[in-house]
Amino acid sequence: MKDIWWQTKGEGKSHLVLLHGWGLNAEVWDCITPELSSHFTLHLVDLPGFGRSTGFGALSLEEMTRLVLAKAPEKAIWLGWSLGGLVASQAALTAPDRVQALVTVASSPCFTAHDNWPGIKPDVLSGFQRQLSEDFQRTVERFLALQTLGTESARQDARRLKSAVLALPMPSVEVLNGGLEILKTADLREALSGLTLPFLRLYGHLDGLVPRRVVPLLDELWPQSRSIVFPKAAHAPFISHSSLFVNSLLTLTS
To answer: Is residue 53 annotated as part of the catalytic site, yes or no?
Structure first.
């Protein structure tokens, strides 16, 4: 039977839903869950088709969000990393009354580069999609390595990401391709400009997947949101700079 894997832990008054990125699963949050669980009631999720949420094929962003919303608490802070940031953002657009605050981490409302918009070149994402069918594991490992490039703890951080992937069965090629398709085609820039709930955006200065040049563009497009850039972090600031990361989240409850 298809079902989303969901684990609740912690004793905080505020509920916090944590959504991982492409190719990964909820194990990726292990480095910060001990500290966060003393401040929040955490909801750890494997997105449909990833980790322990088996039985799903490729889904659209809207379908994936609907499935997660169906299991989510009535009111929570939604935090999404990378691809998870798009799901959290879509949840805020679909059911704003159920989202206490939105936090996106190393995420973009539009991952693909366009005229005057920095991002990943479309042919790079298409290349990953082609390579998945040729050398599945190596393609995922290359994508993970890109996420920690440039940080002082790059090797250690990449090992942590890889161990999260290897801890559970790998997603199918169909699911991974579906995730890349969302990254390639989603564009929530205009839709999120009307969001009125608290909105925090966290970035890594060295991120090679979400260029730091998107930050001032979104500061202007979304003046109701707040951005923080971690100077020595790349695409996984919650791993490389976990204390700073957790402290930034605690501002949502103060």
So the answer is: no
With contact defined as beta carbons under 8 Å apart, do 129 and 180 qualify? yes
Sign of torsion over alpha carbons 95, 98, 100, 102: negative
Give yes or no for a contact between 211 and 234, defined as CB atoms under 8 angstroms apart.
no
Residue listed under structure tokens 């699911």 = 175
Task: Give the H or E element holding residue 193.
Answer: none
Please name which of 47, 54, 56 lies closest in space to residue 23, comparing C-alpha atoms. 47
DSSP state letter for 248: H
Query: How many whole angstroms from its chain centre is CA 172?
Result: 19
**Is there a contact between 89 and 80 (Cβ–Cβ < 8 Å)?**
yes
Write down the catalytic residue from 82, 89, 107, 248: 82
Helix (H, G, I), strand (E, B) or coil at 116: coil
Q: Note if 123 is an active site residue.
A: no
In tens, the pLDDT along 97-106 reads 999 999 999 9
The 10s digit of each residue's pLDDT in 54-98 is 999 999 999 999 999 999 999 999 999 999 999 999 999 999 999
The CA distance from 183 to 84, in Å, is 10
The active-site residue, picked from 207, 225, 241, 248, is 207
Q: What is the pLDDT of residues 166-209, one digit of tens each?
A: 889 889 999 999 999 999 999 999 999 999 999 999 999 999 99
Q: 235 an active-site residue? A: yes
Place of tokens 């991974």: 176
Query: Of 20, 39, 235, 241, which residue is the catalytic one?
Result: 235
